[in-house]
Amino acid sequence: MKAFITRYQFLIFLLLTFVISWFPWYAGIAPETMTMGPSIAAFLVVFIIGGRRGFTDLMRPFGRWRVGLGLWGLAIFGPAVLYLIGLGVHLLAGGEAPPFIMIRDELHLIPLYLVGVVLMPWQGPIGEEFGWRGYALPKLLPKYGPVVASLVTGTIWGLWHLPSFFAPLGVVGALYAEVGLSFILLYTLGTIANSIFMTWLYNKSKASVLVAGIVWHAAINFWAPVLLSDSSLAAAREGTHLPTIATNLYLTVLAVQVVAAFVLIFVTKGKLGYSNKSRL
């Protein structure tokens, strides 16, 4: 049994990820646990195969914090820069600026929001990144190279969000309702682009999943509501407001991310910082 799991561990990881994530959503039983599926699946697989050592090996890259201030800065502010470039293009094209409610009226609440984004498993980074960048990316990199590994990880990451497309609440559900089925492709393009950036950070930081996974993922989730949508923390707490983002603004930001990802692949000649020493 252990030999079978070891041989087909990546496929088993995917199966567990989707079952653990999607079944609670489909059954209506604690749907907020959906975002913890990838990490739970990764821990199950590595523990079955490697026991305590497998568990420790999965945890170790999340403690690599000595990567240089430049990479920390890129992980924290990189998504914000891409969002602001997209917003600038949107405004130059005649689009309307978002209301910046969180910046204008709720600055005192933003630190609490940041803590929630990073530490709450159902917010994404911790619940997902032990699976995406902690388990999947290291398995794919040596065999397929950084670009293909990013494409595969990003595609799985995007399609895994499928249940949230049908949720009547929130930005993703609202965009899906307006754009239609093509939004699934568009959203997945965004996760692929972000996977390319995260793979580069992973390689440059010597496999720091803390920086390339948790921090970049948290920055995506943090900066998007602050800079692009009409999100209100006070209204969300009271249940009186559902955040939205202008479709044209979303598409413009997505285009900027995709172009930036192509540029990064071109500049690095497809290596995305990868070498045999990237994980040392």
Ranges with pLDDT <50 over ≥5 residues?
none
Mean pLDDT: 87
Structural Rg: 19 Å
In what range is the share of β-strand residues? under 5%
Number of strands: 0
| Secondary-structure element order, N to C | HHHHHHHHHHHHHH
For the largest beta-sheet, the strand count, sense and barrel status come to: none
- Category from helices, strands and their pairing: mainly alpha
Percent of residues in helices: over 70%
Envelope shape = globular
How far is the first residue's CA from the last residue's CA?
Answer: 31 Å
List the quaternary state of the chains.
single chain
**Helix count from the secondary structure assignment:** 14
What tags apply to this protein structure?
280 residues, mainly alpha, 14 helices
Verbal overview:
- By secondary structure, this protein is mainly α.
- Helix content is 73%, strand content 0%.
Draw up the topology in text.
Blueprint: H1 2-7, H2 9-27, H3 37-59, H4 69-92, H5 101-105, H6 110-119, H7 125-144, H8 146-160, H9 162-165, H10 170-179, H11 182-204, H12 209-227, H13 233-238, H14 247-267
Helix pairs in contact: 2-3, 3-7, 4-12, 4-14, 6-12, 7-8, 7-12, 8-11, 11-12, 11-14
